[in-house]
């Protein structure tokens, strides 16, 4: 049976009510027994007092009333205010109150004595009770026993019991309230976490995932929330890819237009310049024409970049040896690095041969783009390191340099098409690199610090068929 939140709350309230009921029953039994014992003790004491008085009255020899007084005084129980022994002439023969011995009973007591003759032995007076018992022995009227009994001690006992009941009930409810507060905080905290996560999602963070440790409605809510954020993230990725596709479609259309409008004139201008160079005898003019030819070449390269980025990628994957591909690509920039005084550090030789499935031409283009960016960032020399780190399910190609680095606001935009910090750059190198690596199922990480350098990490997945040969 699954413990839902509703069942837990019902169980909590049931346990709280059951605790109160059980406590009340236990306290009632305890207090009733205490009250019964108090009444029993008082009854025994009263009985002993009456028995002693009767025994003294029925003695045939002369009675020692002083001794009887002392015995009554010792026997006087709690709550019995006074005990009097009265003869037939309503004179007090012995009493726990010495001042009354030998005196005639007052009119009120005498009236009570007459009532006792008629069967009314107890008379109430506030919280005091007058008990008058006629003593008849051997057929003769021997006298009366008069006791003044107070119920204040029993009332105090009852009040004490009531107070104790209230205190016990209050303690139970305080404990119950504490448990309720603890349980409510325990269940409201996950709800607050969900609310906070919803606010994060509303602000655009779709990577929020809640830990699910509950099996009740809270757990269901968290699982539903996690599924919702996962689907929203998927929708965002699809939307981003759709936006990129539309963007690439626009660029492709622009590229085709540029190719049509620029390449034919450029080819004609290039041929014309070649013709002029072949007929030119002035060295200064020849150098000027060669500069024009270089600019034409740069424009042609720009058109090629547009065409490459705007064209849909068609990966031609095949097993390639990654370390060998890195060596081949580095050989293309080795001379430039030596000319700029840049030291290249290699940290991948221990891997031996690492085979992966990839498009070698596109991957080589990606590596070349990153290498060239690093060299361009170190005009005055420096160090570029290339490290290959093989993980369980991926391979990391880490390219670091000691160049100028970029500001944080620039770092956020380095993968945007046509964004560049170079005066002569087009801004498609890293954008194209990111696109190619993601088409391979990987990702690109870019970290840079101004004045320290830049690290670009190309992460490619390792298929099950990929193998490392020593």
The CATH topology of the largest domain turns out to be Beta-Lactamase
CATH architecture of the largest domain: 2-Layer Sandwich
Describe the global form. rod-shaped
Span between termini = 56 Å
Helix content: 55-70%
Order of helices and strands: HHEEHEEEHHHEHEEHEEHHEEE
- Low-confidence stretches at least 5 residues in length (pLDDT < 50)? 465-470
The first-level CATH class name of the largest domain: Alpha Beta
Q: For the largest sheet, list the strands in their spatial order.
A: 2-1-5-4-3
Overall mean pLDDT score?
A: 78
SSE class: alpha+beta
The percent range for strand residues is 15-25%
The CATH fourth-level homologous superfamily of the largest domain:
PAS domain
Number of domains: 3
| DSSP summary: helix tally | 10
Described by strand count, sense and barrel closure, the largest sheet is:
5 strands, antiparallel
Instruction: Give the C-alpha Rg.
Output: 54 Å
Strand runs, count: 13
Q: How would you describe this structure in keywords?
A:
13 strands, Heat Shock Protein 90, Helix Hairpins, 5-stranded antiparallel sheet, 470 residues, Beta-Lactamase, alpha+beta
What does this structure look like?
This protein is of the alpha+beta class. Helices cover 57% and strands 19% of the residues. It is built from ten helices and 13 strands. It has helices at 5-57, 65-75, 107-117, 152-202, 217-279, 283-310, 322-339, 360-376, 408-411, 429-439, and strands spanning 80-86, 92-95, 122-125, 128-137, 140-150, 318-321, 342-347, 353-358, 382-390, 394-401, 443-449, 453-461, 468-469. It has a five-stranded antiparallel beta sheet. Strands 7-9-10-12-11 form a five-stranded mixed beta sheet, with helices on one face. Strands 6-8-13 form a three-stranded antiparallel beta sheet. The longest helix is centred in the middle third of the chain and has 63 residues, at 217-279. The relative contact order is 0.06.
């Amino acid at each position: 049976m699954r413990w839902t939140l509703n069942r837990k709350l019902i169980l909590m309230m049931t346990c709280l009510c059951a605790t109160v009921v059980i406590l009340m029953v236990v306290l009632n039994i305890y207090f009733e027994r205490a009250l019964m014992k108090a009444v029993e003790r008082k009854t025994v004491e009263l009985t002993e007092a009456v028995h002693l008085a009767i025994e003294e009255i029925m003695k045939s020899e002369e009675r020692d009333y002083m001794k009887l007084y002392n015995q009554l005084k010792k026997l006087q129980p709690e709550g019995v205010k006074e005990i009097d022994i009265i003869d037939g002439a309503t004179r007090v023969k012995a009493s726990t109150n010495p001042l009354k011995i030998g005196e005639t009973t007052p009119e009120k007591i005498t009236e009570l004595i007459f009532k006792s003759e008629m069967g009314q032995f107890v008379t109430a007076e506030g919280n005091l009770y007058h008990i008058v018992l006629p003593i008849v022995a051997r057929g003769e009227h021997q006298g009366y026993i008069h006791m003044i009994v107070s119920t204040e001690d029993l009332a105090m006992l009852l009040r004490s019991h009531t107070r104790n009941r209230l205190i016990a009930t209050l303690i139970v409810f305080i404990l119950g309230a504490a448990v309720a507060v603890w349980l409510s905080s325990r269940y409201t905290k996950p709800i607050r976490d969900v609310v906070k996560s919803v606010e994060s999602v509303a602000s655009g963070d779709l990577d929020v995932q809640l830990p699910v440790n509950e099996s009740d409605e809270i757990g269901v809510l968290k699982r539903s929330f996690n599924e919702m954020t996962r689907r929203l993230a998927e929708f965002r990725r699809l939307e981003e890819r759709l936006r990129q596709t539309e963007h690439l479609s626009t660029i492709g259309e622009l590229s085709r237009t540029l190719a049509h409008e620029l390449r034919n004139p450029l080819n004609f201008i290039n041929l014309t310049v070649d013709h002029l160079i072949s007929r030119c005898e002035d060295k200064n003019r020849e150098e000027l024409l060669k500069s024009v030819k270089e600019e034409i070449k740069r424009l042609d390269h720009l058109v090629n970049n547009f065409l490459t980025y705007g064209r849909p990628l068609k990966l031609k994957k095949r097993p390639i040896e990654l370390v060998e591909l890195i060596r081949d690509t580095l050989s293309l920039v080795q001379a430039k690095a030596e000319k700029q005084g840049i030291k290249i550090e290699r940290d991948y030789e221990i891997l031996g041969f690492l085979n992966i499935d990839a498009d070698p031409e596109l991957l080589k283009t990606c590596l070349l783009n990153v290498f060239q960016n690093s060299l361009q960032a170190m005009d005055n020399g420096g160090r570029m390191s290339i490290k290959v780190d093989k993980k369980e399910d991926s391979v990391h190609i880490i390219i670091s340099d000691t160049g100028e680095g970029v500001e944080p606001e620039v770092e956020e935009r380095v993968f945007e098409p046509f964004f560049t910090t170079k005066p002569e750059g087009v801004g498609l190198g890293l954008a194209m690199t990111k696109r190619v690596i993601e088409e391979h199922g990987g990702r690109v990480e870019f970290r840079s610090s101004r004045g320290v350098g830049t690290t670009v990490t190309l992460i490619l997945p390792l298929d099950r068929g990929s193998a490392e040969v020593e």
